[in-house]
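Attaching the record inline, Q. Sequence:
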Amino acid sequence: MQYRTLGNSGAVVSNYALGTMTFGAEATEETSHAILDDYVAAGGNFIDTADVYSAGVSEEIIGRWLSDRPGQRDQVVLATKGRFPMGQAPNDVGTSRRHLTKALDDSLRRLGVEQIDLYQMHAWDPITPLEETLRFLHDSVSSGKIAYYGFSNFLGWQVTKAVHLAKAHGWSAPVTLQPQYSLLVREIEWEVVPASLDAGVGLLPWSPLGGGWLSGKYKRDEPPVGATRLGENPTRGMEAWQARNDDPRTWDIIEAVEKIAADHGVSASQVALAWLADRPAVTSVILGARSVEQLADNLAAADLELSPGETELLTQVSQPRAGVYPYGPMAIQQRSRKIEGGR
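Structure, as predicted:
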């Protein structure tokens, strides 16, 4: 395991984080505690959850794990999120001071801690003024309820706006952004990654295996069945079966991943994770696991070093498709220049 600073903060986290969306849903409490034990035993120290995961149950499971293991709280960096609905009333959702005050206190109670290390806005709120949200986060840092804050699923302009508003008001600045990012989903490189690099914000990619596609578990033109996310629900979310199966780019990427995996004698998952962990601005890749076996395989990516040629192959085969403007080759050329000048 390698260690990096948490974005532009001084806190140090492992370059693979443990995502806990499965806790209380796809993993029982006993399995979840075993996953947590194995993760920290492997050197991991960064645990990510959210209030909405299993309607608060994920946070409660982590809270009981911390309570049963005195001293562990001082060793791990604990992250959670607020924004999505935790009830049916109009103020049970969003990033308003009204909602976040209750959401943060509820997360602290479920986790059984006095401070959350990283509190993240789970998505942009088009209704609440950004100044209101940022002032709440600054006040929460000042009061000691949170150490740092970040965002999830923000666009590039939203990150930049938040950074500069915080600076203009003298408020605490964001340190991280949690976006979807993988060999299959690289469109954030057009705007989100440059905005994050400009601000010194660290990326915490979620769904690094593309919902399981990059693990090699699915085969071309063979609809998934059985105890996998797509086997249980082939139309599930952004990784739905039909659209990705019909796209030749999907299988070109998987073929390249599997070839490199075979050359190293490792799993396809480890290759995909190793590529992502070394991308610009990435602080820590969020691993999700249903079982200790899945976690063990994913954590082995920490020991895999891809050659420059292998990294380039994966980068080229997974290039996201862009129109002529503003992300096509000629448009990109317009935004660059030679230091020595000339045409």
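The first strand starts at residue 3 and ends at 5. The two ends are 45 Å apart (CA to CA).

More tomorrow.
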